[in-house]
Amino acid sequence: MVPPRPALSFDHLGFVIAVLIGIALFAAPFATYRATRIASGEARLVIEALPFSMAAALALVALGVALGAVLARDPLGRLGSAVIGLAVLLPSLGLSAGYLTPADNNFARVSPSLGFWLLSLSFSLLAVDALARMRLGPFGRLAALAVGASALALLLLSGIWDDLSILKEYDTRADSFWREARQHLLLAFGSLAAACLFGIPLGVASHRLRTLRTAVMQSLSIVQTVPSIALFGLLMAPLGAVAASVPLAAALGIRGIGAAPAFFALFLYALLPIVANTVAGLNQVPAAVVDAARGMGMSARQRLLGVEMPLALPVILAGIRIVLVQNLGLATVAALIGGGGFGAFVFQGIGQTAIDLVLLGALPTVALSFGASVVLDALVDLSKGTTPA
User: Fold this and answer.
1) Residue among 282, 306, 310, 283 nearest 294 (CA)
2) Are 114 and 185 part of one and the same domain?
3) Closest to 119 measured CA to CA, from 52, 49, 54, 63
4) Under a CB-based contact definition with an 8 Å cutoff, are residues 7 and 74 in contact?
5) Domain identity same for 178 and 128
6) To pair with 246 at 20 to 30 A between CA atoms, which of 15, 76, 164, 197?
7) How far is CA 52 from the centre of its chain?
8) Given a cut of 70, is residue 130 above it in pLDDT?
9) What percent of the chain has pLDDT over 90?
10) What is the largest CA-CA distance in the chain?
11) 34 forms bridges with which residues in the sheet?
12) Where is the ABC transmembrane type-1 domain (predicted)?
């Protein structure tokens, strides 16, 4: 009989988390104060960035989380401590902004600094580790994502972060933010949809014809080796020529700069994972199943749509997951050629040395990529027809 694992024992990941928490509390600045949005920042430790009582409470909670991360093995206990840590940390950042900003000063800016990011990373790592140990099924993971997104939305709507520099950047650009958000999603999801419509049939054909498979895979592999900036640039000239010679193309928005070359570049990057995973998914369909379907009198089309594609679906969805996360990131670069998206704020912020404007574009991109990954991972599990206990 295997002895039960003790509830308290040394945890190696927990030790790393505890070290990060110690650095965040005692060595790294929690917030950065700037007299103006582009002025040099003044780093403030936790004890300087918050009223003493709040700083002490945050430190005690963080140290408690560190102790639990090192010693506790119970997943629910680890998750609970991580949630408590985040519940104290996130409002503390907003309180720090109000505490450091002088009264009636509209020019000062307060931004999260290394200590805050380390604490966020530590508590998030602990929460993810606890969820992994709980072995949640797809619906459980989707529910956890929904709870996390709802908590973040509630925090934003509460106004406690309104004094943060990134929210001030948002306030002055609210209309353009949502316009660029729509453009970013259009580029990422539109190119994914086009790649699926073209790539899945191409993958089926490549699975059937070995000579076609070799040519297609080699061609798409070459596309993947081209850096994104270079591919955007290469597409500008031919699309510009098409727009100049075909008035209908120009009327449809196809031009040498803007969203068109970005869309086509993302489409080309998306093809290899989708085609390759379609071929791999069809290859792993058992031959006995196909023979049984043939013996039942099913036509080639019926076998493909009714037997092979459903069995290959989990692998195809895994390729779509790769593409979506990739496209959400690469769409940021589209702003360099006028394609819009969240990259517009990233590159504006770099040009103005305004780090909070960079974050205004970068953080939503990261959040979208994380959310898309969780959702599609759950869909992959659901397509397998198995739900872990």
Assistant:
1) 306
2) no
3) 63
4) yes
5) no
6) 197
7) 35
8) yes
9) 49
10) 81
11) 109
12) 181-376
User: Is 163:94 a contact under the CB 8 Å cutoff?
Assistant: yes
Sign (positive/negative) of CA torsion 117, 176, 260, 370? positive
Give the domain-ending residue among 111, 135, 159.
135
And the tokens for 349?
């912020």
How does pLDDT run across 18-49, given as a tens digit for each residue?
A: 999 999 999 999 999 988 877 788 899 999 99
Give one DSSP letter per residue of 244-300, joined into a string: HH-HHHHHTT--SSSHHHHHHHHHHHHHHHHHHHHHHHHHTS-HHHHHHHHHTT--H
Give residue 388's pLDDT band: very low, low, confident or very high (50, 70, 90): very low
Residue 146 lies in a domain: no
Lowest average pLDDT, out of 59-68, 86-95, 339-348, goes to 339-348
pLDDT over 50 at 224, yes or no? yes
CA dihedral angle for residue 91, residue 89, residue 23, residue 145, rounded to 10 degrees:
-120
- CA 299-303-307 angle, 5° bins: 160
CATH number of the domain encompassing residue 242: 1.10.3720.10
* Angle CA 246–338–192, to nearest 5: 80
49 in any annotated domain: yes
What is the chain's alpha carbon radius of gyration, rounded to the nearest angstrom?
A: 25
User: In terms of Cα–Cα distance, which of 199, 218, 238, 17 is closest to 124?
Assistant: 17
One domain, residues 203 and 335: yes
Residue type, 200: I
CA–CA dist 212, 216 (Å, integer): 6
The residue to which tokens 């994914």 are assigned: 192
DSSP letter for 331, please: G
State which amino acid sits at residue 133. Answer: R
Supply the range of the domain harboring residue 264.
Answer: 174-384
SS3 110: strand
The verdict on 340 and 258 lying in the same domain is: yes
Position 210 in a domain: yes
